[in-house]
């Protein structure tokens, strides 16, 4: 069903369950390393493999991270809570249960405000947070030999247990109502804002492409005027902001068509298909009782003291929303300029470049233009480019000093991205410094005058604008390294014309 038609008949209700892999050096309940990309099954031990006689011990840094996120979301921090065993069979969970928190999460009742751009201007939504709880991640199963990468049709499956036991925080929203046709944008804005919040706390790199942030997107529809929510679907492990938005839009259209035809929505998990923007059915969705939760007898309760919570509160950094308000005022940005920074995911990158000494306008120019273009070409996030804000600030400084032109600066950035070293090393290795001394420029100027006699005559006759062709010839002869301003002065002097 067309999206607009679906929204005329039905009101969407959303819910997002977001998993954040914490950036701790060791796993949730053992001392195994957590580095991404290690050789399969090399970061495992008796505890995370659930060998008989092994006992878990809680990672204190993971508890601190959970409290910090709860405080940043304005949650209440529980003074006492327990871990539970969530029982289900998965081949990538060696215990056949997952250690999680069930009825006693560490953080409850918070919120996160998000802003969505509309034709009428920015519109703010408050997303209520039901809970933040701690748990451990599962391993990774790969199905080999099939056409879809799923178990159906595969020849065999392989399991990597390196990820099993990595600390996770799950952030669960309360039902998000009254979003109307903005529902997909609200879902995306929430995921983006949560990612920025977590990144600002320094507790995770939240790289969605590596799975350190994953969203389960719940969507249900209820007929306009109804008071009871419809049956929800849950699209699992959506791993990009764009896909969060697309999965909500597709589910609204799919469920609306099903309901309008007299069918019913089945409570199930679904899988998002990046190539088509659609979702495919997975399995029927279990209820809480199906997991047979019970307190884990091997773990003591978690009981953060009020003093510890307040100590952690004092370490909270400037949060993203407050930071955006500050830089908007300090840099005199319009709403559109700030929106461009947010949409490019460049706020922190530009801020760090300014802190390294670059003017805000120049920092924005390089990140939003040249570097955003290169990120798009290589299909990576802007922050994943192999260049630091300090390096960008150095490029800006070299341009300001007159040591580089903008054209040469782009070549320097190209060299940095290619791994040739920092800006100064690239300038030296590639011989990219601006040529601005008269002795070096003189020969190129003379050659340009001889080769462009018509333009030279026009300049002599008073048509000074024609000097542009001669400057261009000098720039070409010096491979763009000439100081264009000094070249212009020398040309006019040699032609007997005052600039």
TrEMBL record:
This is Aspartyl/glutamyl-tRNA(Asn/Gln) amidotransferase subunit B. Residues 348-495 form the Asn/Gln amidotransferase domain. It comes from Nocardiopsis ansamitocini. It catalyses: L-aspartyl-tRNA(Asn) + L-glutamine + ATP + H2O = L-asparaginyl-tRNA(Asn) + L-glutamate + ADP + phosphate + 2 H(+); L-glutamyl-tRNA(Gln) + L-glutamine + ATP + H2O = L-glutaminyl-tRNA(Gln) + L-glutamate + ADP + phosphate + H(+). The keyword DNA repair does not apply. Heterotrimer of A, B and C subunits. Its EC number is 6.3.5.-. Pfam families: GatB_N, GatB_Yqey.
